[in-house]
C-alpha cells in the first residue's frame, strides 16, 4: 500500500517537474499558436453591433516603437507577460451593458488566463537578472497606454459603444504586438 502511494507520489512529482521544466521555446511556440484563436474569439464576442450606432473609435495610439525598438530578449519577455496581464485586467471591468456572446467571452477570458500563467513560467525560469532601466521604461509605457483604456471605459460608463471600441482596439493590437515581441525571442 505504502509502496503504491510512494510510486504515485513520485510519478506526480515527475509530472510536476517536467511541466515546470517545459522549455521556454515551447511556450513561445504555443503562444504563437494561440494568437489566431484568441483573435477569432475576440471577434466572436461581438457580432450584432451595427457600426453606425457608435461614434468613431478614438485613437488610443499604441506606443509600438517604444515597446519594440531597443528592447532586448529580456525586455520582450517581460513586455509580453505584462501585456497579457493588462488585457486580462481590462476585461475584468463590468460589461453587463454589452450584448456580447458570453460563450465566446468566457472562452476568451479562459485562454487569456492560460496564456498569462504559461508565460509566467517562461519568464520566471529564464529571467533572473534584475529589471533593466529599459524594461522599466517599457513597462511604464505599456501601463500608461492601458490606463488610457481604463479611463475611457470609466468616462463612458462602460457603455456598449465604449466597450466595442476597446474590444476593437485590443483586436488590432493583440496580434501585432505579440508577433513583434515574440519575433525578438
Ligand atoms: C533607441 O536607442 C537609440 C540609441 O540609444 C535612441 O536614440 C532612440 O531614441 C531609442 N528609441 C526608442 C524608441 O527608445
Ligand atoms: C454592472 O453595471 C450594471 C449597470 O450597467 C449594474 O446594474 C451592475 O450592478 C454592475 N455590476 C457590478 C458588479 O458592478
Ligand atoms: C457564440 O460564440 C460561440 C463560440 O465562439 C459560437 O460557437 C456560437 O455560435 C456563438 N453564438 C452566437 C449566437 O453567435
TrEMBL record:
GO terms for biological process: defense response to virus; immune response. GO terms for cellular component: extracellular space. InterPro entries: 4_helix_cytokine-like_core, Interferon_alpha/beta/delta. One of its GO terms (molecular function) is cytokine receptor binding. Its main location: secreted. The keyword rRNA-binding does not apply. The keyword Transmembrane helix does not apply. Keywords: Antiviral defense, Cytokine, Disulfide bond, Secreted, Signal. This is Interferon alpha-5-like.
